Amino acid sequence: METIDWKSLPFGYIKTNYNIRCYYKDGKWSEPEINDSETINIHMAATCLHYGQEAFEGLKAFMGVDGKVRIFRFEENAKRLQNSAHGIMMAEVPTELFKEAIVKAVNLNKEFIPPYGMGGSLYIRPLLFGSGPKVGVSPSDEYMFLVFVTPVGAYFKEGFKPVKVQTFSDIDRAAPLGTGSIKVGGNYAASLRALGRAHDEGFSTALFLDAKEKKYIDEAGPANFFAIKNNTYITPKSTSILPSITNMSLCTLAEDMGLKVERRPIPFDELGSFEEVGACGTAAVISPICQITDRDTGKTFSYCQAGNAGPISTMLYNRLRAIQLGEEPDKFGWNIIVS
Ligand code: PLP
Ligand code: COI
Prior knowledge:
Blueprint lengths: L18 E7 L2 E2 L3 E3 L11 H5 L2 E3 L2 E5 L5 E4 L1 H14 L7 H13 L13 E10 L12 E10 L10 E5 L17 H16 L4 E5 L7 E4 L3 E6 L2 E4 L9 H12 L3 E4 L12 E6 L3 E10 L5 E3 L8 H14 L10 E4 L1
Parallel strand pairs: 9-10, 9-16, 13-14
Antiparallel strand pairs: 1-2, 1-3, 1-8, 4-7, 5-6, 5-7, 6-18, 7-8, 10-11, 12-13, 12-15, 15-16, 16-17
């Protein structure tokens, strides 16, 4: 194992020792298998390659203050992967098998879990795809479920420092009745051009508007959107955004902290009235947003005094991290502790 600089981990791929693989054939799943190869061998006519039968998940394991390893809300990821599978007609991975595979992947790669206090975590990437051949457009008869892990730091290089994001009206990520609410690779392919352009033009990420009317905020490329005003946590309700487990957790924490929570369409024109805004997700955790610029009109909204996150975003971030790191009682039962 090459030495890892835990303090400056990027959000990227670092080779670990093992990954876990399960195969679906003849209507049933195989037992999880331990593999030490970074590559897979699949049929050239596999449906994942031609017809996009692919979905993934992202969750994290943390080294706690007490030396115990915690995985955050895996049941929700298992459920979402089942929804994704259902959405594009893939075999569903049962929750028990999902759990067995992720726990094995974490346990077999323990030395890659960033030590407590370094700010990093072990990112768990479950992957499900059609591996059997088809040439006509139809679902595969065979599937592969794979879990790899890799140590990561902050998704945006700014960490918990506020970022700038860009809105625009010429690229859609997902259609209102399409696949935006499930975690399939095609959504990310559709977002790449907007993300690349946003980066090139000096922004951390792209913030998509609703595809139909271009009037409402949908979500950022890799994360949900939230805003704070009048002691209320407000987050978009839309059929084309991913139901974020982080966002769901922040809603619970916000209510617990005495805030009101609203899930509703957020008109672009409301951006000017917010006190704090941010992006949230497993990878992003909370990324406070200091500026939203609309590419079409140049209109810019600014948040965050002196380049710092707002007080409510900061409190939410601290509480979420404290629960994940075992610094605060897990009163909602979100973590499992792995041996
Ligand atoms: N939205 C998109 C498009 C994402 O890729 C992610 C990341 O998984 C999220 C939102 C956040 O979801 P979660 O909090 O479950 O990671
Ligand atoms: C996550 O937050 O886990 C994501 O999947 C976002 C991105 C890395 C695709």
